[in-house]
Task: structure prediction
Amino acid sequence: MGKGKLAIVGVGEVPTGRYPDRAPWDIIYETCMQAVRAAGLDKNDIEGVISVNPMAQARLSSEIGFGKIPEELGLKGCNDVCICNAGGASTANCLRLAEQWIDSGIAKTVLIPHVTVHSVLPPDDLIAFFATAGMDLQWEYPFGTTYNGIVALMSQRYMYETGTTAEEMASVVVALRRWAALDPNSMFYKKPVTIEEVLSSKMVSTPLHARECNVLADGGAAMVVTSWDLAKEITSTPVYKLGQGATYMSASAVLRDDFFTREAWRKTTQTALDEAGITSNDVDVFEFYAAYPFCQCVMLEAAGICDPGEAGKFIMEGHTSPGGKVPCATIGDAVGRGHTGSGVSIANYVETARQLMGKAGERQVPDCNYALATSAGGAYMNAVTTIWGREPQ
Amino acid sequence: MNDYRKPIPQIQPWSAPFWEGTKKHELLIQECAECGARIFYPRKYCPECWSSNMGWSRARGRGRIYSHTTTMTGVETKFLEDLPFVLAIIDLDEGVRMTGNVVDCDPDDVSIGMEVEVVFDDVTSEITLPKWRPVKK
Result:
């Protein structure tokens, strides 16, 4: 399989937060216009729009799915439009489909937007949505499963097998929130937490405390992508996709031998690094997105940065935090960012681009040449790893 | 029994024997007559070999806890009365793995590797959920 030769040339984003008075379309306008302008393009240069499906918002999903974005924005050069639905891995699929459209000549440049406004949904509806989304209605839901519950089962087993302590797991949140505290686009900007604050927060599902779980947020972002060749002409700071790896696990966690997903991440990380022709030692920033703290540990171990079971200690020592030798999740993953629904991982790709463009502000990793970015959907149905860089290779 | 407000399983034609079994307080595991695979959850065709020749065998109803969590909050209103409740993954002696609840014990006493046995909860006149309790030593 050859490389798709995709590059990100512009990004736009609104801060995560609660905007019950703000129409989703207002966010779509702002993020898309930001991204197109950041790329230095005209709106009519956009030849394709591939959006994340906002799964929690059925009406919005229908409007976007049936082609309203190019019409609202007046994208006169648009050749086609599509919506991608793969839960938290939707953005990864938008990128891969865009790659195919660009490669096959459907579109030279593609706009990838995401928006979700959770705060307009009644709390009971949101709990019900997350209690059933990704859960099996026959074999899981009748027993009271929730996202937090399933991840609690995975975290519990990870901690049991590796001996990782509650303090070490809490320190993952501390590290993520230290990054978030430097991010003006995070709802937790300037709001770091301590291990004590994490461990004294309400127990949700053992071993997960409230501060180890996600806060639902409103938000949105957009990216403009194009081919490697055009990217060089469009901007002085293109971000090249250099490698990828993907594997499917299972819809239900219970059916997974690789229960806390380390082997899946090991496989996709290696495939992506091999395709890029680099090793994990060459990676300057690890943009791990996985929505819960244990995943940061699992991914560090999968990347070979830490021996199995050592990641908790490593994170507690501060090595993944701002100023650390292995910067990880520089927007603080979903725990530090607020969870914006099925498009939550777009923030991760936007940050990957910012780091490689040298536009990450206080979070900027010095001499950032290579970034690894991950995403996954549902109850970890899949593992998607990508490598990005400042030079095509 | 008719005021059960929590979700009941959405049964498929090919999984109906499982739920007819629990109603009789029997735990059935689907087995492929072609390749011998033991399958959970039940499928229309064998996920190993796509055979349509599927059968059932009665499980001993014993297993060990692979992982567990005590849920304290963050559930739908209909589950509030159960808080705190134990959600667990159980490795059955027959080699399949199920998600379920551990009942009849203090949630703090549940641990990985603990031996459990099935207990049948007749939640409505039609539906019986298999649940799990620690095996008394």
